[in-house]
Design a protein that fits this description.
heterodimer; A: mainly alpha; 8 helices; elongated; B: alpha/beta; 2 domains; four-stranded antiparallel β-sheet; 12 strands; 37% helix; 26% strand; binds adenosine-5'-diphosphate; binds magnesium ion
Chain lengths: 255, 270
């Protein structure tokens, strides 16, 4: 009985062990600064165009969706406030994380997966390098710092997209009012929430990608499976963690 | 059982399981210093797992493994790094790091061993060693290339250079000739013989080609030319045959060829 639970529990345990080692290595020698820089470039700079593009459109579409509802209540002046709250608290972090998960959880899993099936990981260990130190920890550091930065940029460009839609296309409100309400709507707690989320999502994306990559078996086919699995798992976890963090912030007293 | 100083590698009743299934099954043997062991067996016989267990990359489920007199069975990974410095391994297909050039690949074992930042003299010494190792495998001209630009045989040769650049006393070769045409395969075997004879290394050579064993057992090198000279009946070459994880034969070439066992005979005739 309960045999069907054995595999997922074993996986979870392996994941926690990997996560523990990856975090512990942050403060241990040797540090592979070159690898951190390369990963930061691949993940941060590499994801920039797609993150900006989707950020812009999500802001614009939010403004468009809200325009109708708000004008029914004669509150179309509030559009900046709505766009900024949704972007900063939810849409920015989650959309950016999903994009980075699609781009980098898969990228990490396929890279580490091919290294695994071609025995490069074994070769590393044979030559005296800890693969977690050399491969996992740099990706963890790079993703968890780059994702908040990408999210900030995505939030800003989204607000700008909302502004173009609301003030230039639909002429719902003045530019002054848009930016003032957008700015006033946010308190410090929102900003903390909006940065905590991508930081945690970054950890998830990196660790899931590495975990799926490092446990790849079964040749090139296995690499394909690992890649898909990494994106799906990371994306689902982004939503689950998002709900948990939101729950914590909603029930927190105002600061 | 205590191990003598002449033992390089000892397996005591070692079993490795994957999903309950034993893939190395109660295997015992001793590799003496200066010995070459040829491990024959079909695909899936457990040859690769055997070599990885010898390096501590895979932990046995039961039994003990001794490397250079140290019981490595329960050693932590950090402690294993030290023991592994005295072993070179050529992985199947080479397992070169594809993000690094040939030169960086061969320098890797030397650099990863250096605990501190190296000064120019030390870096120069490493570069010289790398070049010498690449010239040994006759690939001095490929330093700037990436593994993806090399043929299968060349990748294998770079792998040999990487495995031997630190001059380890024991070298493990996993299927050095698998997937290569006969001419390239013989070139690789000539390198193995040259490496063994010039540096007196102990080795384990995993293969499914009996011919590879014949070359190891019946030839010596002519020196730096790398040509093979017949040297029949040379001592210190032992054959092992694995079948479904079991070690079913262990002995000299003469004993192997005289074996009445059907599975062994099938191998020898091929
Ligand atoms: N990491 C692993 N997980 C599960 N099974 C494995 C693993 N590595 C090897 N095996 C199994 O062990 C057996 C022996 O494999 P191997 O030692 O690679 O054979 P070969 O003699 O061809 O080198 C095979 O049946 C293989 O499927
Ligand atoms: Mg094999």
């Amino acid at each position: 009985m309960l045999d069907f639970l054995k595999r997922p529990i074993q996986s979870l345990q392996d994941f926690v062990v990997l996560a523990g080692k990856a975090f512990r290595n942050i403060v241990r020698k040797p540090h592979y600064f070159d690898d951190i820089a390369i990963q930061a470039d691949v993940i941060g700079v590499g994801s920039l165009p797609i993150v900006l593009l989707t950020g812009f459109f999500s802001g614009a579409v939010m403004a468009l969706q809200m325009s109708k509802a708000l004008s029914q209540y004669g509150a179309s002046g509030q559009v900046g406030q709505i766009v900024s709250i949704t972007l900063v608290r939810e849409l920015g972090p989650v959309l950016t994380a999903l994009l980075v998960s699609g781009r980098n959880a898969s990228g990490i899993a396929s890279e580490l997966g091919s290294m695994k099936v071609t025995e490069q990981i074994d070769a590393m260990r044979a030559l005296g390098t800890d693969p977690i130190q050399k491969l996992v920890t740099p990706r963890l550091i790079a993703t968890s710092t780059m994702l908040p930065l990408l999210t900030i940029l995505s939030d800003f460009i989204g607000l700008f997209g909302g502004y173009l839609m609301a003030c230039v296309v639909l002429k719902l409100t003045t530019s002054d009012q848009y930016w003032t309400t957008a700015y006033r709507a946010l308190d410090f707690q929102d900003v903390v929430q909006g940065l905590t989320k991508p930081f945690i999502f970054g950890i998830i994306v990196a660790l899931v990608g590495c975990f799926e990559g490092l446990r790849t078996t079964g040749g090139t086919q296995g690499v394909g499976r690992a890649t898909t699995e990494a994106v799906v798992t990371a994306s689902v976890w982004v939503f689950v963690i998002d709900l948990i963090i939101t729950r914590i912030f909603v029930s927190m007293p105002a600061w | 059982m205590p191990s003598s100083p002449h033992e390089v590698l000892r397996f005591d009743n070692v079993t490795v399981r994957f999903d309950e299934q034993p893939v190395v099954d109660r295997v015992s043997f001793v590799l003496a210093a200066g010995e070459s062991r040829i491990v024959l067996g079909e695909a899936g016989a457990g040859k690769t797992v055997l070599l990885k267990t010898a390096l501590g990359l895979i932990r046995p489920d039961s039994g003990r493994v001794h490397l250079f007199g140290t019981d490595i069975t329960d050693l932590k990974e950090k402690a294993l790094f030290e023991v592994r410095q005295r072993v070179g391994m050529l992985f199947q297909e080479g397992a070169l790091f594809d993000s690094q050039t040939v030169e960086e690949n061969v320098a890797y074992p030397l650099l990863s061993r250096a605990q501190k930042t190296l000064n120019n003299t030390e870096l120069q010494a490493i570069e010289d060693k790398v070049l010498r190792a690449l010239e040994f495998v006759e690939l001095g001209h490929t330093v700037e290339k990436f593994p993806s630009e090399l043929s299968g045989g060349m990748r294998r040769r770079v792998g040999i250079a990487r495995a031997t650049v630190t001059e380890p006393p024991l070298v493990l070769y996993d299927s050095p000739t698998a997937g290569l045409d006969p001419i390239t395969a013989n070139t690789i075997m000539a390198l193995l013989v040259k490496e063994r004879d010039i540096r007196n290394t102990s080795s384990m050579v995993v293969t499914h080609r009996y011919q590879d064993g014949q070359i190891m057992a019946g030839f010596r090198t002519d020196g730096h030319e790398g040509k093979l000279i017949p040297d029949p009946g040379r001592p210190g070459v032992v054959f092992m045959v694995m079948r479904e994880g079991r070690l079913i034969f262990e002995g000299t070439q003469t004993e192997l060829e005289a074996s009445p066992e059907a599975y062994v005979r099938k191998f020898v005739r091929r």
